[in-house]
Amino acid sequence: MIPPTPAVTTMELLAPAGTLAAFEAALEAGADAVYVGAPGLNARALARDFTLAEIAAMTAHAHERQKRLYVAMNSLVKEDEIPLALKTLSVLAGIGPDALIIQDLGLLYLVRRFFPGLQAHASTLMTVNHALAANYFKELGYTRVVLARELSLDEIRAIHHQCAMELEMFIHGAMCFSYSGLCRFSSLYGGKSSLRGRCVQPCRRRYDWLPSGKRAGSGQGGKGGGYFFSMNDLSGIDHLAKAREAGVVSLKIEGRLRSVAYVRNTVQAYRLALDALDASPARQDEMLAEAHRLLAASMGRKHGPGFLLAGQENRLIVPRLSGSTGEVVGKVVRLDIAKGPAADRTTNAQVVLQASIRLGDRLRLYEERSGDRMSFTLRTLAIKGRKAEQAEAGQTATIGLGGVDPGRLRQPFQGVLFRVDVSGRDEGKRSALARTAMRMTVPEPDPAALERLLADLGIMDSGTRGPATPGRQAGKEPRAGHGAARRGRSASSEWWLKVSTPEAMTLRYPFKVARVLVELNKRTLAWGLQAKGRRSGERPLVWALPAVLREEHLPWYRAAIEQLRQQGTACFQIGHIGQAGLFADSSRQPPTDRALELYGDFSCNVLNSLSLRMVAAHGLAGAQFSLETDQATLASALADFSRTVPGPETQAMKVGFTVHGHPPLFTARLDAPHFQGQRSFASPRGERLYLDRRDEAVYVHAHTVFSLLPYADELARMGLDYFVVDVSCGQPKKNVAELTALLSGRGELPPYFAGNYAGFLS
Q1: Which residues make Cβ contacts (< 8 Å) with residue 159, sequence separation at least 6?
Q2: Predicted confidence (pLDDT) per residue in 88-121, tens digit
Q3: pTM over 0.90
Q4: Distance between CA 709 and CA 701 in Å, rounded?
């Protein structure tokens, strides 16, 4: 066991900033450190990214005051963004922020290889929820981990006592229903990846339960509907003493998209609460009361302790509440949309007010069924047909929706009106720091030097590759697979089958199965340890771990892996890169001379050639590429990876891809009391979905299958070493019928969706 780190006596208060004004407000309110986003490479879609000159100015400003600045480069990086990432890292190395917050293993690869002076913190998007992963991430080169938000304080304390890594935790702000890093809903159904800061927040929409056999149409009319997945905000203001006892070194406030007033009030509240920890009892009560008053003044969602207190998880979602931020000011009871050309139409809404409003307020109209949000500034207001400047709670007001596209308004409209906090929006434009940033220049890296680094990495930039067109995607050329080319054989892709039950192996499939991925669980383990299981129908087995393992699950998986290895099993698939630690300390070798083969599932979030190189360098025999990819990114990443100089690690590295199955759209810890068995439900957009509740997590799947089988030949020409067909969800015989139809392309094809492959991942 790793000896515990010394007890923490002080904790860093880490604040968000999406504007210069918010950055200054955070420091003035008492933050010890501030985190900001790197331009174009951070997991928040801001109205305007910071420039590198502004980051340089903020870094200098913070350091002059003995404060710290962290830069979030926590987006997954597409292949054509690697030159930008390399250039940005080169500039940041000269600026000298205190650390980078990183999710993408390819970015970590660049930092470790070319910029070792930059510290790297593992983003919460890497789903670190046990000490095994934290310790493995230290081996990868991270100096701190931002823990998953789904942990209790007791679990954090246990992690602290088993690892020597700095631990950072979220203490306040928005919560996602899915584990951060494992949400694919926004991406696969819309092309906007939450791992790239583009999430459209499908978890905030209203859903309807479907009676057995009912098909989803408009998403209207289901009984028992609500905001099934809309999490309350986290507020740990009353639990800071326990956080300190748990060994946390940094308390993080979420909110780079929030207003200046929100940042100021929230940071000031937590500064007071932290200072109160060492104050006298009488002073503590006074300081905490003021802290709560400040939080109450910040517009936000209903909040609570999140997962911090075990046993209170049933309070995390209130299905009747929409989860939109801001102050609810009224309920929309009618829309009046004038006829005529769209450009000339005026729209008015009748609203029963719950709070006062006045001209000039910034308001947001929220459509409860679709989840659409439309913001506008209030310019016209009337009470009983007479113009007014202000209206009070209890009145019915007619407001003009100037600036809202009438085409986005559905009839009959069902929605709520919110007031949005935009205070301080223009403060940064007038500050001395803004003027400093405007005058500041940062040295541009030598283009020739960057080109040499890219060439050393085997990376072709987008200019060399040529523009992507419908007939030719960037970097897409028919070629042998990267592994095939090195071994001197023709291009071919193996077909791997993923199953959850042994019975699924007995069916006839429309392809030759090279390997079988078997979900490792109690039922399959018992089967696998029997004599008939060892033979496995003469198909080699690869035992697959789920994407999420909690600390209490690890002993069973350690024992199961040890049993299988003693039996002679050598092949496993990990669902999280940190699970490689399960195989690093086996005390006994299996009674065979076969080397251990570890493969990575698509949940390891590999989206570029450098990530492939990183996992290859750490011993993986193969890895699946991210399901979120578009065609151009996959093709160019494989092409660049094929140019990797062969070495002991990368020579045998295979790249796979799941081409068919029901991947989880949400992977969550919360099994909420309003969830109803395995029942199906409908989204406002007509998508039919269902819950799958298992020991390790709650999953949300689409009834419609994800499939790239119509593109199988094209994918093979790109050089993928293996395809994964996942039949672990649904009815086995129905799965086989779908597979056969989609592979043959004959007859009436079953409904399917292809994610971003034929489109564009943003």
Answers
A1: 130, 131, 134, 147, 151, 167, 551
A2: 999 999 999 999 999 999 999 999 999 999 999 9
A3: no
A4: 19
